[in-house]
Amino acid sequence: NSPGVELKLANKIFLAEDVVVKPEYQQLAEDIFASSVEKVDFSKTNEAVKTINDWCEQQTNSKIKNVVSA
């Protein structure tokens, strides 16, 4: 217990839209890693980068804003 210290973990799997995810894998990701799967159109590079960075920024309370770049 340290005042002002917070540990927050976040996981998400970003996959190309054409990738088929087996339901068993998706369930394991959710159960073991508390992770969801999101399909991203990586051919639209700027949109994909924005999607990933926006998620990261939201999960880190704006402490990390740019985890990937185009």
UniProtKB/TrEMBL annotation:
<dbReference type="GO" id="GO:0004867">
    <property type="term" value="F:serine-type endopeptidase inhibitor activity"/>
</dbReference>
<protein>
    <recommendedName>
        <fullName>Serpin domain-containing protein</fullName>
    </recommendedName>
</protein>
<dbReference type="Pfam" id="PF00079">
    <property type="entry name" value="Serpin"/>
</dbReference>
<dbReference type="InterPro" id="IPR000215">
    <property type="entry name" value="Serpin_fam"/>
</dbReference>
<comment type="similarity">
    <text>Belongs to the serpin family.</text>
</comment>
<dbReference type="InterPro" id="IPR023796">
    <property type="entry name" value="Serpin_dom"/>
</dbReference>
<dbReference type="GO" id="GO:0005615">
    <property type="term" value="C:extracellular space"/>
</dbReference>
<keyword id="KW-0722">Serine protease inhibitor</keyword>
<keyword id="KW-0646">Protease inhibitor</keyword>
<feature type="domain" description="Serpin">
    <location>
        <begin position="3"/>
        <end position="69"/>
    </location>
</feature>
<dbReference type="InterPro" id="IPR036186">
    <property type="entry name" value="Serpin_sf"/>
</dbReference>
<dbReference type="InterPro" id="IPR042178">
    <property type="entry name" value="Serpin_sf_1"/>
</dbReference>
